[in-house]
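User: Here's a structure from my thesis project, written as structure tokens. My advisor, Dr. K., wants to see whether a designed sequence matches the one we expressed. Can you design one independently, without my sequence as a hint?
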């Protein structure tokens, strides 16, 4: 009888635990709502008097191609960024692994007078057009990400005959600076032409300023080294990725080196990128430099003066001379600093991020927060961080006394489970989660809505 009572007690305890857990789960689920529910406020509408636009990053398949996802994005955002689809690796024909010699090629005469062979078409053209169509249909604007990047760009792009040969990490048959400049111009012109041709065919030609579907480009991405030195005297380039102790003579895949720097040895390719973008993009399309760890500014064994390095890069672009591109004298234009804002809970801290933000604004650049997410261990931690950052960011929006503003905030992904940092202790980086195939709000979403009050 004694054992029976003991077993009954244990069974009761287990049942209570199960019921308690079930209640807790139910309570948690009840706090989450379908992102399309009428009772769920729209983020873009909540912040329409603070930022010019609110954005969410996504992938075409399986996200943007889904009509139900389109509805959610249209409700909560008026700008989107494609996480991968517009990167050079995904746009170029050789991404498929076919030998470049098998591609159909045509002649291209660059503004430097060099005539080179280039692929007749980029393989990502059709997907680009499908994305523009979805955006137009759902009244979404698009940030183009990205034209020039050391990563996710095929090594073949930098090699003679579009076929890289190696000695260790180094390409042994890099093209000359002159040919690379011609290829660079061709690629940027081709991307701009694809967008312009689509807009021409779909009724956007002749519309008033600011009505392009693709409204901003990340022209150059992550060209500054994390171990950037503090001083840049004379020809010193120890702030560029590829020039520093940690990045020199390394491949992008092995140590974060840069084929761009290996070809040029300086920042000429960065200035070229903005000059070509200025020449071929519509005048009202915003041109951005985008980088991570953009708030790092301290010494140490490896240096870490990245904020200063970024300001150096942007000022070099802004102060560069005019040169002839496509028959016209073109001085490179740079409008925006893209602060990626992949941030931890404790580092750099709101104050550390704000200090860097103020430097970019004071230097005369608008700011886009382009890739916001948090490495949070739990929902409460994530929600607190989102609340603190949005309360800080809104001070620099439309009503700010600064002549330059935070114009756009983009969260890097739709739902937690598909986030690039969803692993280990990092489970709650975004504003929505997935529950039985549906997108639902998280405590971080609630925190963002409350932060506006």
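Assistant: Designed independently from the structure alone:
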């Amino acid at each position: 009888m004694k054992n029976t009572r003991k077993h009954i007690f244990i069974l009761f305890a287990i049942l209570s635990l199960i019921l308690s857990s079930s209640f807790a789960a139910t309570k948690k689920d009840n706090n989450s709502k379908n992102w399309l529910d009428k009772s769920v406020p729209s983020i873009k509408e909540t912040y329409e008097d603070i930022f010019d636009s609110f954005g969410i990053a996504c992938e075409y398949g399986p996200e943007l191609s889904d009509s139900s996802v389109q509805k959610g994005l249209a409700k909560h955002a008026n700008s989107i960024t494609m996480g991968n689809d517009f990167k050079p690796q995904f746009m170029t024909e050789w991404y498929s692994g076919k030998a470049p010699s098998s591609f159909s090629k045509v002649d291209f005469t660059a503004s430097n007078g060099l005539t080179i062979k280039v692929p007749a078409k980029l393989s990502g053209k059709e997907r680009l057009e499908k994305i523009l169509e979805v955006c137009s249909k759902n009244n979404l604007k698009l940030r183009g990400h990205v034209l020039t990047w050391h990563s996710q760009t095929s090594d073949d792009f930098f090699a003679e005959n579009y076929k890289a040969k190696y000695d260790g990490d180094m390409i042994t048959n890099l093209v000359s600076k002159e040919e690379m400049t011609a290829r660079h111009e061709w690629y940027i012109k081709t991307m701009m032409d694809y967008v312009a041709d689509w807009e021409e065919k779909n009724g956007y030609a002749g519309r008033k300023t600011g009505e392009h579907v693709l409204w901003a480009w990340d022209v150059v991405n992550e060209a500054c080294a994390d171990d950037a030195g503090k001083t840049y005297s004379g020809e010193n380039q120890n702030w560029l990725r590829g020039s520093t102790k940690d990045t020199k003579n390394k491949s992008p895949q092995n140590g974060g080196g840069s084929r761009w720097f290996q070809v040029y040895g300086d920042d000429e390719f960065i200035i070229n990128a903005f000059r070509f973008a200025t020449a071929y993009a519509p005048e009202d399309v915003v041109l951005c430099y985008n980088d991570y760890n953009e708030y790092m500014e301290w010494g140490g064994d490896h240096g870490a003066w990245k904020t200063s390095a970024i300001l150096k890069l942007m000022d070099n672009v802004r102060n560069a001379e005019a040169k002839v591109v496509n028959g016209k004298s073109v001085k490179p234009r740079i409008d925006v600093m893209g602060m990626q804002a992949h941030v931890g809970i404790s580092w750099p801290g709101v104050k550390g991020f704000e200090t860097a933000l103020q430097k970019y604004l004071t230097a005369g650049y608008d700011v886009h927060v382009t890739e916001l997410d948090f490495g949070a261990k739990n929902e409460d931690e994530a929600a607190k961080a989102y609340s603190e950052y949005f309360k800080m960011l809104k001070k620099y929006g439309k009503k700010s006394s600064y002549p330059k503003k935070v114009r756009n905030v983009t969260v890097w992904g739709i739902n937690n489970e598909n986030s690039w940092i969803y692993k280990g202790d990092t489970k709650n980086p975004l504003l929505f989660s997935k529950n039985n195939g549906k997108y639902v709000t998280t405590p971080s979403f609630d925190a963002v809505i409350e932060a506006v009050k």
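When you compare it with your expressed construct, this may help: The CA atoms of residues 297 and 305 lie 4 Å apart.
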